[in-house]
TrEMBL record:
4Fe-4S listed as a keyword: no
Family matches, as Gene3D superfamilies: 3.30.465.10, CO dehydrogenase flavoprotein, C-terminal domain (3.30.390.50), Uridine Diphospho-n-acetylenolpyruvylglucosamine Reductase, domain 2 (3.30.43.10)
This protein's name: Carbon monoxide dehydrogenase
InterPro entries, sorted: CO_DH_flav_C, CO_DH_flav_C_dom_sf, Diverse_Substr_Oxidored, FAD-bd_PCMH, FAD-bd_PCMH-like_sf, FAD-bd_PCMH_sub1, FAD-bd_PCMH_sub2, Mopterin_DH_FAD-bd
Organism: Dictyobacter vulcani
UniProt keyword Lyase present: no
The FAD-binding PCMH-type domain, residue ranges: 2-178
Pfam family, one: CO_deh_flav_C
Length: 288
């Protein structure tokens, strides 16, 4: 059995303490939330932090609540809490739907939304959902809090706009207005449950029945989670027939660098991204 390299363990009891530890140990430290991404990497020695800062017991970062025109979710809220939240089922059913497809029950019991988003695995499910819902991501560092739009958060594979001494503490989701439907669809790797290609779709229909707004995010196929702007532009202002949708999703990964590995070639992933995007958009329309 693989075992991690030696490290020092630091259980943090507050956000301020965790930030201080990040400042103290710098590049030699890693944050531990749910641990389902970091621990396997450490066991394979792909990641070898000298200091592990455990933020998993900071209870103040685990919540789902309503604040005026937003729903806010703490960074340490677990997948199972999201999956079972009546508040999210009412306002953002896309999140519980996608979360139910993450890993297995053991992973969903321990894994956290903040850990997933901060890790920025391009094959993970929740980065696409957070992007499609146009979330505001609140982070905290030595200089205080700042808010990063989801559109600006995902930089590259395993790379985000988080500074090394910042912690992701909250997601703020603006409530939808108008007639809106959403859906998540993915082609999953049967062993890992990660997305070979996935799509989160949010569609709003105007009074004349045409698409007045669209937010389409692709995950799994590209080297980072992306908004499929070409698809959105092709949908907005149109009556969404099957023909219109099929033409729109053919542009799902235009101009993007694709993941190429043993699970799929570039051509295969481009085609599968279009397939899951069409399915997600069609189901989102049905749910309006």
């Amino acid at each position: 059995m693989s075992v991690p390299a030696a490290f020092d363990y630091h259980p943090a009891t507050s956000v301020d303490e965790a930030i201080a530890l990040l400042q103290q140990y710098g590049d030699e430290a890693k944050l531990l939330a749910g641990g389902h991404s970091l621990i396997p990497a450490m066991k394979l020695r792909l990641s070898q932090p000298e200091h592990l800062i455990d933020i998993g017991k900071i209870s103040s970062l685990s919540y789902i609540r309503e604040e005026q025109d937003h729903i806010v979710i703490g960074g340490l809220t677990t997948y199972v809490q999201i999956e079972q939240s009546d508040l999210l089922r009412k306002h953002f059913p896309l999140l519980p739907e996608a979360t139910s497809m993450v890993g297995d029950q053991q992973v969903r019991n321990r894994g956290t939304i903040g850990g997933s988003i901060a890790h920025s695995d391009p094959a993970a499910d929740l980065p696409g959902v957070v992007l499609a819902l146009k979330a505001e991501i609140v982070v905290q560092g030595p200089q205080g809090k700042r808010t990063i739009p989801a559109d600006d958060f995902f930089v590259d594979t395993f790379t985000t706009a988080l500074a090394p001494d910042e912690i992701l503490i909250e997601f703020r989701l603006p409530k939808a207005t108008g007639s809106t439907g959403s859906a998540y669809d993915k082609l999953a790797n049967k062993a890992s449950h990660y997305a070979i290609a996935g799509c989160a779709a949010v569609i709003t229909r105007g009074q004349d029945g045409s698409c007045s707004a669209a937010s389409i995010a692709i995950t799994g196929a590209t080297v980072r989670t992306i908004r499929a702007r070409a698809v959105e532009n092709a949908l907005v202002g149109k009556q969404l027939s099957e023909t219109v949708i099929a033409e729109a999703v053919s542009h799902a990964t235009d101009g993007e660098d694709m993941i190429v590995d043993i699970h799929g070639s570039e051509e295969y992933r481009r085609k599968m991204a279009a397939v899951v995007a069409r399915r997600a958009i069609m189901r989102a329309l049905e749910r309006i």
